[in-house]
Structures are given as structure tokens and as C-alpha cells.
Amino acid sequence: MERGLVVDREAKYIGVYIPTKDKIFTGIPRKKVLKKTKIYAGDYVLGKILDNENFAIEEVEARKNLLKRPSVANVDNAIIVQTFKMPPFDSLLLDNLLAVYEYLGVEPVIVFNKVDLLNQEEKNQFEDIINIYKDAGYELHKVSALNNEGIEDLKKYLKDSISIVAGQSGVGKSSIVSKLTGKQLETKEVSKKTERGRHTTTGVRLYKFGDNSFIADTPGFSKIDALMFMDKREVPKYFREFLRYSCKFPDCMHTVEPDCKIKEAVKNKEISCSRYKNYLKIIKVDLGLLSGICD
What predicted TM-score, i.e. pTM, was given to this entire model? Predict the structure, then answer.
């Protein structure tokens, strides 16, 4: 049997990429497959080529993960696209996304787009943000999809993997995917009034770039709540810099507990105050705790 990758899933259509043919076939699931499982983009499937257009799906391989928003299986990386402006940087959204993808077992990669728009003062402020996330231990890339800046380095990093692109509308997700893949995706200009983009993506499609690299363009969104995915007591495990410290109590929530090494690290500027502030927002705790810590 041939092994393929589901690269297109919209309504009843299933597009299966077969590497040996370097071609996308229309996937036709056998009844035994339909009875056992639903098929998602990112699924690896086994089956037989019926003719020049159709592929019979006999089996769906076990998944290492399955994301629901968007519905993609076997994801290696989540490319979280941000901008410093147009639209303005949203640190709370970023920190929610970082925690969620860590929880889901997907490697988060922060990509700041539109760096060509920054003046010198903005570049200085931007570098402060960059340092916060680099110091926390995250992979970070600075790009300009407009000028092709940083795209090749990002492409090399994503080699041999399945990636999704996440982030608020208007940050240039489709533009980045277009530059990586060489395919022109539909994009919309950011509204001058709201500084937000519009949804331009429907369904889920994986675009091939390189020999064994695939990336999905996904709908934009403006809000996400980590507590929709995990209990608040789990959130501290998904702030990377917190894991460098051991508090007196193993289940310390880094709020009111005594001998908390995280609060001490924030006070000593070893952990970013903005990250700690967003952590408190995520777990829905009174920001009055910042008094005396972030002064």
C-alpha cells in the first residue's frame, strides 16, 4: 500500500499527497475507515492509488496529537505570528497561546512580522520584548513578509515538519505562508480604523514547501483563554522560565504562598514582570499581588 498525507480537508473533500507520485489525489475512505475514525488534515493514511485522480484510504495511522482549533493532526510546530504594530502587540494573547501549545505538546515558535515598519524608537521597544521571550527560552524569528526578510531562516527551522500558523487577524499569517510556499494566498489589508484584519481562510489546507515540510494557514482570532484547555493549577507548568525554580511547596501557584521562588525571581528581575502579570491574568487572580513585586 502507498502512504500519504492528508493535506486538504474541507466539507467532504479529502486531498491526499502521495510522495512517490509528488501529487495530490482525491481521497476516498473505505467504509471500514469511516466507521472507525474521522479524517483530518495532517493524518497519515495508507491505501491504494485507483487511477490518476483517486486514492482509496484503507487505514488512518495513529496520531501523535490532534488540534481542534484548527483541526490538524500530527502537528510539530505552532508558528505564533505577532506584530509590534499594525495591529499592536498583544502580550496576553501571545502568553495564552504559548501556554496552550505547550500543553498540547506542540513546539511554539514566535514570529514577529512587519519589522520593516518600525522606526528607531519602536525598534528599541521591540528589542525589549524580543529579549523577554528569548530569555524565557522560546524560539523567535523576526521577519518581513513584504521584503522577504528572515523567511529563509524560518524555512530552514521548519524543515521536515508539519506546522500550523496561529495569531490574531491582520498580522500577516497568509503572507508568511505565501512566502514560504511560493503560493499566493488570499490576504486582506489591515483596517486603518481598527488595525485588525479580516478572516480570509476557510477549511484546513497544508501547503508543501521543501522536500518534507508542510504548513497550514488558519483563521485569525483576537482572543484565546488558556483555561478553556487546562485547569488553572496546570498553567504554571507551561511558563517555561518558571520551571527553572523550585518553590517550598511543589503545588505552589506563585500567588500568596510563602517562600515562592517565582515571586522572588520577578522581584529580582530574573523573570519578566509583564510575563508574571499575564500569568496572573490567565489564572484570574487579583493583580494587586503585583504590589511590591513589580515596583
Answer: 0.88
